[in-house]
Amino acid sequence: MNRSGVDIHGQVLVVQESMNRVEMFPKDQPENRAIVYVGEKPHEIEVSADGRTAYVSNFGLLEANYKVGTPGTTISVIDVTDKRERTRFPLPSGARAPHGLKIRPQHLTELFTNTEEGIEEMVVFNAESGAIIRTFPLPVGVHNFIFSADGADCYAFTTTNDIFRLDPDRGRIVAHTSIPNVRGLAWTSDNSYLLVGARGQILLLNPRDLTVWRQFTNLPVGQVFYPVADPDGRSFLVPAVLDGVLLIMDAKTGEIRKRIATGSPLQAVFDGKCAWVSNVKVPRSMLPPGETERPGGLVRLDLSTFQFQVIPDTEDANGIAVIPRRAPSMLALADDR
């Protein structure tokens, strides 16, 4: 319980992009949900360490390569206890389309977002007041980013085939590499290597100099989006939106253990013996001729049986956050396409 007497732990929060809202519900009672409306075409979600506040990037655009819509200019701030939008943090003038959204580890008052239209920069807010602490310019095309566990390094990828290691205080480029069609960064379970999703492949990079340590190629899918390593280090979950499948990959051998047709998977968040998987809406314009629109939605995947439960009325699910039952820390994936 928090001090208001409302139990916020065990809550699932899912961003519904085309509906401009966030749904939240207890993980074992998805029918008992609340809806909070936010800005236009929201994408990423991040939760404070105490679980009481959620932040949502109001991107305003359909997708990084299909920029349909109006670039957004705000971050929505949600009171998780009261289940309402408390306020919005405005971006600096000229910076638009906030996408990636992360609280910096070990610096919990610093909320970072990258802007993709107008002035491309990293904007660092005070997570409590919304005051802008600092900004710094970003390389062209940065789409999303993650931090090292100690918050000392920021790793960003672009839609122009680049990965950068950045100094999060000044924005200085520390290391750089080129990876074709990169669309997702995460950490291996022991935080030793960067886990990279690309077209038809998964790569592991040395986080110091971004050299390739290992590469799994010829995956039975096209573009991989946001891969994630399971906590025990045995598997990678590999979403492939346009192929409509989630691959379960052996983290040591690269063997594909399962191919699960969830619809249009984008992100996955581990939650004990299950994982929550978001499936985004895919319009016909992004699919091969003759295919119908995929509505998307949230599913709960049992990691023992690999059976999944579709959560009704969650179409066009994008960012996901899960507030653990008894811990104040946040377990969340914040990126989008």
Order of helices and strands: EEEEEEEEEEEEEEEEEEEEEEEEEEEEE
The strand line-up of the biggest sheet is: 3-2-1-28-29
- Tell me the radius of gyration: 18 Å
> Helical proportion?
under 10%
- How much of the sequence is in beta strands? over 45%
Strand segment count: 29
Structure description:
- The protein is mostly beta strands and 337 residues long.
- A hairpin with a 6-residue loop joins strand 14 and strand 15 (173-178).
- Strands 3-2-1-28-29 form a 5-stranded antiparallel β-sheet, with no helix packed on it. A 4-stranded antiparallel β-sheet has the order 4-5-6-7, with no helix packed on it. Strands 8-9-10-11 form a 4-stranded antiparallel β-sheet, with no helix packed on it.
- The relative contact order is 0.14.
- It has one domain: 7 Propeller (Methylamine Dehydrogenase, Chain H), CATH 2.130.10.10.
- Helices cover 0% and strands 48% of the residues.
- The radius of gyration is 18 Å and the shape is globular.
- The protein is built from no helices and 29 strands.
- Residues 327-337 have low confidence and may be disordered.
- The chain has strands spanning 11-16, 21-26, 34-37, 42-47, 53-58, 74-79, 84-90, 95-103, 110-118, 121-126, 132-137, 142-147, 154-158, 162-166, 173-178, 185-187, 194-198, 201-205, 212-216, 228-229, 235-240, 245-250, 256-260, 265-271, 274-279, 297-302, 308-310, 317-322, 331-333.
- It starts with 10 loop residues before the first strand and ends with a strand.
